[in-house]
UniProtKB/TrEMBL annotation:
Name of the protein: Solute carrier family 41 member 2
InterPro entries: SLC41_membr_dom, SLC41_membr_dom_sf, SLC41A1-3
The entry's keywords: Ion transport, Magnesium, Membrane, Transmembrane, Transmembrane helix, Transport
Keyword Cell inner membrane: no
Length: 438
């Protein structure tokens, strides 16, 4: 800004400059001062290091979440109320719908210089926005889980329904509150450390999101499970409190200039993503009951794919907002992300084996088929990401608000489906060691 201010000084005694020229120069300078800062050049090595480190952190968070899922699947609440499995992809998908979208949106604001001058307004508006969305989507996810669990059996249990709704609403609210505040801190810290937030923010949101959300869901559902058959008062209070919170937070977000557009545009992607993730939950419910070893790998394959496509979408969106030249589908970032799939997956699946988690040994044929599924998932996601982000921009939509929910939900659906196919193929060809399918 010092350079701009120095350039705005006009000569006091300029006989050769008429009034019209002075006015035109002033208008040009004011316009230039409102332009976003020029984007810094970022070489592939720097971007690669930043992304890989953030992927490692995110991956270990997902490994921890996978180990947790492998543990809690044996809890009474998961055994008695199997519809809780349907909630897992939908609620874990909220990190893509809300926290990762928040990270992408704030990363763009950081590149545009808004973090420095409007931090308080950004915090208030975005925290209210994600709280409003989280509670409502959590409620809808529970309704979908209830319907999907009721339709096949034709039996409706009010206590199970109240458990699912209360657990989902409370988990979504608490997780979004904690993760939203962390995301704001990550973006601000990244900017001060001269790190591109597009490369690190969304994976960190994912790493903390999976573990935090799954832990909260398991704990809350387990506590509420103890009240089944005796009282529905506590679940009712939780649900009513959440539904009261929605319009209050929604009003505050609507009155905030930084979140009004996101509030208008964000509902269709968030709800659509929840439906897609719930479909993935049905697949997970089926595959877990047939292959016990699949649970520990499901969060890893979905998480890595979701992280990579979120980084890709976030970088593309920032490029569009800052006026940078768009790359082709097979851009340098796309190739870099595809290369990272193999080492990332190998590190995490061997970490799972080292910790003796799950029910599946890492035979060569297992690694080959698993890696094929992971590579296919990421390739499809990155290709879809390019066309989706560019298409939204041409339609006048902000990709920061709309793209990532669809992409991470598709990542969950593709990852769960491809992993299920991989285990089915392994079982069919006889590569079922003493643990596979146990």
């Amino acid at each position: 800004m010092n350079r701009i201010k120095n350039n705005t000084r006009m000569p006091r005694n300029s006989g050769s400059t008429n009034e019209t020229d002075v006015h035109a120069d002033a208008c040009r300078l004011i316009a230039n001062s409102n332009k976003p800062p020029e984007p810094k050049y970022e070489n592939s090595w720097t971007a690669g290091v930043q992304m890989f480190v953030s992927f490692l952190l995110a991956g270990y968070g997902m490994v921890a979440a996978s180990l947790l899922l492998d543990k809690v699947q044996h809890w009474d609440v998961f055994q008695v109320v199997s519809e809780v499995y349907i909630l897992v992809p939908a609620l874990l998908g909220l990190k893509g719908n809300l926290e990762m979208t928040l990270a992408s949106r704030l990363s763009t604001h950081a590149h545009l210089g808004h973090i420095d001058s409007n931090l308080s307004a950004l915090i208030v508006g975005n925290m209210c926005l994600i709280q409003c969305q989280a509670v409502l989507v959590g409620f809808l996810a529970a309704m979908a889980a209830v319907a999907m669990g009721w339709i096949p059996d034709g039996q409706f249990d009010i206590h199970h329904a109240m458990l699912l709704c209360a657990s989902s609403v409370l988990t979504a609210s608490f997780a979004s509150l904690v993760l939203g505040l962390i995301m704001i801190g990550v973006i601000v810290l990244s900017k001060h450390m001269d790190i591109n937030p597009d490369n690190v923010a969304t994976p960190i949101a994912a790493s903390l999101g999976d573990l935090t959300t799954l832990a909260l869901l398991s704990w809350i559902a387990s506590l509420l499970h103890r009240t089944i058959g005796s009282s529905i008062i506590l679940p009712s209070i939780i649900i009513i409190g959440g539904l009261v919170l929605v319009p209050v937070c929604g009003y505050i977000a609507y009155e905030n200039k930084f979140t009004r557009q996101a509030l208008d545009e964000g509902w269709v992607p968030v709800v659509s993503a929840m439906v897609i993730s719930s479909a993935g939950g049905l697949i997970l419910d089926y595959t877990v009951s047939n292959y016990s070893g699949i649970a520990v790998f499901q969060l890893v394959i979905n998480g890595i794919g979701g992280n990579m496509v979120a980084v890709h979408a976030s970088r593309l969106s920032t490029s569009l907002h800052t006026g940078q030249k768009m790359d082709s589908v097979l851009s340098g970032t796309t190739k870099l992300l595809m290369v990272m799939v193999i080492p990332s997956q190998l590190i995490f699946i061997h970490t799972i084996e080292y910790l003796k988690a799950g029910h599946t040994s890492l035979t060569p044929i297992f690694i080959l088929i698993y890696m094929s599924a992971a590579l296919l998932q990421v390739f499809l996601l990155l290709t879809i990401s390019h066309y989706m982000v560019v298409g939204m921009w041409k339609l006048g939509m902000d990709p920061d608000n709309s793209a990532i929910p669809y992409l991470t939900a598709l990542g969950d659906l593709l990852g769960t489906a491809l992993l299920g196919i991989a285990f089915h193929v392994l079982y069919a060809i006889g590569d079922k060691d003493s643990d596979l399918g146990d």
